[in-house]
Every structure is written in C-alpha cells, then in structure tokens.
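Quick one:
INPUT:
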C-alpha cells in the first residue's frame, strides 16, 4: 500500500499526515462500502429478493401478501425498469434514456435490409379459436423452415407434429418445465434470467448448477457434463445457446457432442432464441444461423427440445411477435397455442441484420476500450456484452452500484447478479461470481448506444474526480407495485388478445 506524502517538517507532522492519510483511506473505504450497502439493500427490498434457506430468520413474512402465493422475485429486466422508473424513466420520456438493459433488438429500419412489412391482412377464419398447439399450417411452415435451413441432407425430417406454437419464450419455457418430472436438471451460471423463475416455480425438478468461468471462455465442458450425467444422474440439461448474457455459442463439434447426449438417455433443452445473432470473423460466414437441429439424427428419437422465437430472430419481420416454436420429440410435449401465419426467413434481411449488429458490437467494444473498460471476452453472438467491472475502484466494481450510478445519467444496464441463476435463493448472491459484472445490450439503435456510453464515461470521470463520496447517495426507493400486492390477477387468453 503506498501513501504519497508531501514534504514535511517534523516527526509529529509525519505522524499526523500518516494518520490523515489512513483516516482518509478508511473514510473512502467506508463510503465505498456504504454505496454498496445502499444498492444492495434496495435490491433486497424488492419483493422475492430475500435470501431463503441461508438464514431462515431472513425470510420476510410480508412477502406472502396473497394467501398461499409467494412472490417469485422480479426478473432482471423488470427490477431494472422499476428502478429506472423510480429515477424518472417513463415510457413517454423513454427517448431521453439509453436503455442498454434492453433484451430486444431495435425495430426501426436496418441499413441495406429490405423494408419491414407494416400491415397484414387478417382473414375472418383466423379469428376462430386456435388449437392449443398452434394452427397446423404454421406448425408445418416451422417444420419446413427447420428442414430447409438445417436438415436438407437428412432423411429424418420434422413434420408439424414435432412443432408447438407458444405465446412467447417464457410461456414456452414454462410449458416445457411443467412436463419435466422429478429429475436432476442441469443448468449453468451465468444464463438467461428467466430460468431462475422457471427452475424455482417447478419444484419437482431439482436444479443442479454448474458455474462457467471466463478462463474456459464460459464454455460448457461436454466431457465434464458426461461425467456429471453418470455420477449425478442428470436427466435434463437446460441452456441458452447462443448464451445470454456472455455472448458465447456452442457450435460445430461441441454442439454435435451436446446433441449426442440426447441419444444417450438425457434430454437436452436448448433455447436458441439468438440463433441468427451470430457474428463471423470473415465475410463468408455471414447469412448463417446456428441450431442443434443440424446435428439431430432422428427427429423422433433424439431427445432434444429446441426453443426458438420470432421476437429476436425475426424481429419486425414477422406478423406474430411473441410466438415461439419448439421442435420436440414426437408427442413428448404440448405447448400453448397461438394463431399465426406461415413464414420464412428473408436471407437478405438476416444478412443485413447480422452485419448491422456486428458493426454495433464493434462500435461498443471500441468505445468501452477507449474508456479503459476492456471486455474479457468479446461476444461472438447475441447482442450482449458481459462486462467485468473488477478492475474499477470500489464501489463502482459492484454491478448494483454501477447500475444505480448510471441511472442518475438516464442509462440502464443490467447488474450481473441477475444472471446468477439461484432458483431457491439458497446462495448469498452478494458472494456471486456475477456480482462484479453488468450486461450491456447493443440491441438498441446506435444513437442510444452512444448516449449510454457517454453516461458511462461521465460516471467514470466523476469517480476519478471526486471518488466514492457521492456514490450511494440520492438513490430513490422504488414504489411497491400495486400488482404485487393485489389479489386481482387477470389472465388474458393471448389467442384472442392477439386478434384485438
Ligand atoms: C435466452 C432467451 N430465451 C428466451 C427469451 C425471450 O423470452 P420472451 O419471448 O418471453 O421475451 C429471451 C429474452 O430475452 C432470452 O434471452
């Protein structure tokens, strides 16, 4: 530890100056500590965020406001939107904010892409109730799309019977989880925030975590997974691929090996929501997507469930946003219904999308580097950057503090803690390996990205200039949401709502 002392006259002066320096250091440390505590206590106050199982006395009985119903905890994006609203964000003034927490791609025009459709004809018979698995024509179109894209050379082809249509990713995941039995289900950390709720709500399946780390490029070790299957009796593996939030993807031989586990008694559930958000190093790699469908040998025998979604992969191209398809072992799964329209990807559009998003990724990485924020591992897929804050001075190295400080500059990112899937809230998340991370989305348009990066620059500048003393101050408490406290739950039938 070094203290830089100015020139002094006497021994007592030296003692005094050392004392001052130590006092100053302690003050700084305690200010940094205080900022972390404030940010963490705001997090703890949100419904469902109390740790459970660690210290039973910490369970908040007030959280069970509706008899028999427990708050599941808010997903990262919802918590962050609530915090942003407490800091003045509203949907009316959202253009003044940089929402780099956004889990959706931009929906405006994409350079060099064909125009997006802006109206659709709705025939009268499409207003009928849709079957719960989706209309047959749409299921057929999805099967054909998968066969054309990934299985041209294969004799085993998907048919409409392998496909179910559901109203959104979370709904699809929930339906899949609902049919998983009393088995060990393997998942990895970090991964998509919604798995936390899925794995905690469905109590029959027993979640078994594997922590991925940067040293192994956040890669799932397939050989280790095989050993875990043998030794721990894992029956189901759940993963997003490409992975949110690390932006890494299992592909080629590794993906083939992972799929092969589906022929050896394990069910592999792959959430391929970002299969088109792939950024090749060379021009020849553009225009391709990645899916496990390519490596499935027999679509009716291999136990591989694919969850895909139009919300990201065909954002703005398709007329039924929110729908999602799942190709599964025949008859094994029934998912929620959604009326829809036959579709196919427009390759020119997907190509333009990939080029545009790769340019946005490079732009953000470049600007972060200029700010001294070197990213451990550049994303090769998705539209997220998993930013390690460990090298920043305390308390900015805490993802929750970094997030709160950015809110003051009208910018939203997602604290890393939300990607540490902790279904039963058994571990103390503040010891999490994700605590020193934030996820930055490059889904929004470039102007928004720049506004957010300017805000990051300002937070860093201020931290350098005045140190931690203003951090942790002026954090506005979130209002509790009426919905959390209310017994009035409105369940909307999306099959009808989508037509309204
Ligand atoms: C890995 C992953 N799967 C699925 C979804 C989409 O779910 P939904 O359509 O419910 O927004 C997301 C959204 O962020 C995601 O990151």
């Amino acid at each position: 530890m070094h203290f830089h002392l100015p020139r002094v006259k006497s021994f007592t002066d030296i003692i005094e100056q050392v004392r001052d320096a130590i006092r100053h250091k302690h003050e700084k440390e305690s200010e940094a500590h205080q900022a972390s505590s404030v940010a963490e206590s705001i997090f703890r106050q949100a419904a469902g965020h109390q740790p459970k199982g660690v210290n039973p006395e910490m369970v908040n009985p007030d959280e069970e406001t509706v008899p028999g119903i427990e708050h599941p905890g808010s997903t990262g994006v919802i918590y962050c939107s609530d915090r942003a609203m407490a800091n003045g964000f509203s949907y009316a003034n959202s253009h003044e904010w940089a929402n780099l927490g956004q889990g959706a791609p931009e929906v405006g025009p994409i350079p060099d892409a064909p125009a997006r459709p802006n109206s659709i004809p709705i025939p009268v018979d499409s207003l009928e109730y849709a079957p719960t698995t989706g209309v047959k024509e749409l299921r057929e179109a999805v099967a054909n799309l998968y066969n054309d894209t990934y299985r041209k050379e294969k004799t085993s082809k998907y048919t409409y019977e392998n496909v179910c249509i559901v109203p959104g990713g979370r709904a699809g995941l929930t339906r899949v989880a609902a049919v998983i039995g009393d088995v060990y289900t393997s998942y990895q950390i970090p991964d998509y925030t919604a798995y936390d709720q899925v794995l905690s709500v469905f109590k029959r399946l027993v979640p078994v975590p594997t922590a991925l780390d940067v040293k192994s490029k956040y890669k799932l070790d397939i050989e280790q997974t095989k050993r875990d299957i043998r030794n721990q009796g894992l029956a189901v593996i759940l993963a997003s691929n490409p992975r949110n939030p690390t932006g890494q993807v299992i592909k080629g031989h590794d993906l083939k090996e992972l799929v092969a586990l589906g022929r050896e008694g394990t069910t592999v559930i792959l959430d391929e929501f970002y299969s088109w958000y792939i950024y090749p190093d060379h021009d020849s790699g553009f225009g391709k997507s990645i899916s496990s469908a390519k490596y499935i040998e027999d679509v009716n025998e291999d136990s591989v469930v694919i969850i895909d979604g139009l919300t990201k992969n065909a954002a703005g191209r398709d007329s039924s946003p929110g729908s999602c398809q799942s190709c599964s072992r025949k008859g094994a799964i029934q998912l929620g219904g959604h009326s829809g329209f036959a579709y196919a990807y427009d390759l020119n559009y997907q190509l333009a999308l990939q080029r545009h998003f790769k340019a946005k990724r490079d732009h953000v990485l470049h600007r972060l580097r200029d700010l001294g924020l070197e990213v451990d591992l550049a994303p090769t897929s998705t539209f997220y950057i998993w930013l390690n804050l460990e090298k920043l001075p305390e308390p900015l190295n805490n993802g929750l503090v970094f997030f709160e400080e950015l809110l003051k500059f009208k910018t939203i990112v997602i604290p890393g803690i939300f990607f540490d899937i902790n279904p039963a809230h058994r571990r103390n998340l503040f010891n999490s390996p994700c605590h020193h991370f934030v996820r930055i989305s490059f889904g929004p348009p470039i102007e928004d990205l720049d506004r957010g990066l300017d805000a990051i620059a300002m937070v860093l500048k201020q931290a350098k200039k005045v140190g931690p003393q203003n951090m942790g101050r002026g954090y506005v408490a979130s209002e509790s949401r009426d919905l959390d406290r209310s017994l009035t739950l409105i369940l909307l039938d999306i099959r009808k709502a989508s037509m309204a």
